[in-house]
Amino acid sequence: MTHPLFQKFRLGQLELANRVVMAPLTRNRAEPGNVAARMTAEYYAQRASAGLIVAEGSQVSPMGQGYLATPGIHSPEQVAAWKVVTDAVHQAGGRIFLQLWHVGRVSHTSLLPGGAAPLAPSAVTANTKTYLGQGFEAVSTPRALELSEIPGIVDDFRKGAANARAAGFDGVEIHAANGYLIDQFMKDGANKRDDAYGGSIDNRTRLLAEVASAVCAEIGRDRVGVRLSPAGPINDCADSAPQALFELAVDKLEAVGPVYIHMIEGITGQTRTTDPAVDFAALKKRYSGVYMANNCLDGEAAQVAITDGRADLVSFGRAFISNPDLVRRLQSGAELAPLNRETLYGGGAQGYTDYPVLP
Ligand SMILES: Cc1cc2nc3c(=O)[nH]c(=O)nc-3n(C[C@H](O)[C@H](O)[C@H](O)COP(=O)(O)O)c2cc1C
User: Fold this and answer.
1) Which ligand 1 atom lies nearest to the CA of residue 57?
2) In the chain, which residues have pLDDT < 70?
3) Active-site positions?
4) pLDDT at 275
5) Three-state DSSP class for 343?
6) Total tally of structural domains belonging to the chain
């Protein structure tokens, strides 16, 4: 019998061909104007046998950009370029969401309009690096957002969602993970504010709830997911008491009702075990919507997570880069092709659209 991982799954109004999701993956191949490249349509269409593709983080405003050549979703040219991508994926029978991204303090003045300082909950520099084309460099010192600027950030996400729908995406995923702006507001290592957005966990989860509400109101809850990474410290962003913080975050999302939460279980791309430990089963229990699990999983672990009821959907990041036909390989137990780390960020077709499928 076909394992449920490879069977159809209903996500809101959408029928997914299987429960294997392509996780969002930044590849830094956008063209001038930060528009998705032509070859990006081919790249995602090659991976359309995923039940769902979550396309790479895409900045919702010029100030939301943190790395060179990442695509945006705030200009008409960006919407038009993404339409070519979504058409190609739909033609190949796939489903595709776009990840909406504001990097906050994880940026560099050379990337921002007029050489501006990156935006953050507080003027605390992250001990992390960004990709600027010639390699990785330390991020710039940010400035704290004024209270009066926060509604504008919420509105950038709302407009990003509307633009994503105009570009033909089936939905969006709000990037609230990996030490970017919404995660920076949530975690006490980065948020030192003393206004309505800082201090208590209720205050620190306010931006998350506001963005989720605005995006759900704009395009419908059935078309919205939210990505969370409770365990730090990716991009130097950690919390002293993540369990309580993320229980409240999940409770607030439960009240708003996006169709899925996408949980990075552990430290992104590194390990599933953390100190302090996060009880992901407890987080899942608080959420009546779809729970998507991610991080350092292989095909066998994914199947067990589904049969044990620990996940409804499972996403794969790195394995999808080097295996366009990942679903078929997982199903047949075929060996996975190794990843070339040299071609992850930037460059052309090499290491992007030239990974072969099995005959
Ligand atoms: C090259 C690369 C780019 C990534 N870009 C993003 C991104 O844009 N948004 C995001 O939420 N996570 C991003 N991630 C994290 C992945 O989505 C995923 O969480 C991580 O690779 C762990 O999953 P895996 O073990 O299946 O690879 C990226 C990871 C890699 C390796």
Assistant:
1) 8
2) none
3) 180
4) 84
5) helix
6) 1
For a pLDDT cut of 90, what percent of the chain falls above it?
97
Q: Indicate whether 358 belongs to any domain.
A: no
Contact in structure between 322 and 52 (CB atoms under 8 Å): no
Domain that holds residue 337: 4-343
Per-residue confidence (pLDDT) for residue 34, from 0 to 100: 98
Residue 355 resides in a domain: no
Residue 34: inside a domain, yes or no?
A: yes
Q: Determine the pLDDT at residue 134.
A: 87
Residue 113 CA: distances (Å) to CA of 119, 161, 329, 341:
12, 22, 44, 30
**Is 353 part of a structural domain of the chain?**
no
Ligand 1 pocket check: which of 229, 268, 327 to mutate, most ligand atoms within 8 Å of Cβ? 268
Residue 104's Cβ-count burial label (10 Å; 0-12, 13-18, 19+) is buried
Please state the atom number of ligand 1 nearest to the C-alpha of residue 294.
23
Q: Judge whether 268 and 227 are in contact, CB under 8 Å.
A: no
- Gap from CA of 56 to ligand 1 centroid (Å): 9
As a whole number of angstroms, the distance between CA 118 and CA 104 comes to 6
* CATH code of the domain containing 45: 3.20.20.70
- In sequence order, which ranges of the chain are alpha helices (DSSP H)? 38-46, 76-91, 150-166, 181-186, 201-204, 206-219, 242-256, 280-285, 299-307, 318-322, 326-332
CA of 25 to the centre of ligand 1 (A): 5
Distance 1 CA to ligand 1 centre (A): 31
Radius of gyration of the CA atoms of the chain, in A: 19
Q: Which atom of ligand 1 is nearest to the CA of 345?
A: 1
For residues 118 and 106, is the Cβ–Cβ distance under 8 A? Answer: yes
- pTM value is 0.99
| pLDDT tens per residue, range 10-62 | 999 999 999 999 999 999 999 999 999 999 999 999 999 999 999 999 999 99
In this structure, the residue with its CA closest to atom 14 of ligand 1 is 25
